[in-house]
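Thread: "does anyone have the structure for this chain?"

Original post by V.I.:
We have the sequence but no experimental structure in hand. Need at least a predicted one for the grant figures.
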Amino acid sequence: MSWQRTSSKNVSDAHGYSAVVDLHARCINIIVRLWSARNGVTVIRSVTTGSSESINLGGLARERRWQEKRMTEVIDAAKPNVFMAANTQVALEMFAR
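Reply from O.Q.:
Generated one for you, tokens below.
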């Protein structure tokens, strides 16, 4: 079984697997283009090991941007609304709570 031979590998180790760093940068650039980031905006990157962690980090980043925009407009930023489909991953529902 191939998973037994690879289960001890840590592919997120940038020192041992330098190609992962290049792949990560390419993926981030694809996402930045998909989300139409403004030119000149500094993109902060982070590697996660699972989708739940990704959802929490992305949600926190989005919430922070929302709060900053609301504060600039002098509007209450205490309780954001999160809309999702019925088939959304459980981690997003947990984050919204």
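V.I.: this helps a lot. The chain is about 55% helix and 0% strand.
O.Q.: and Helices lie at 2-6, 18-34, 51-72, 90-96.
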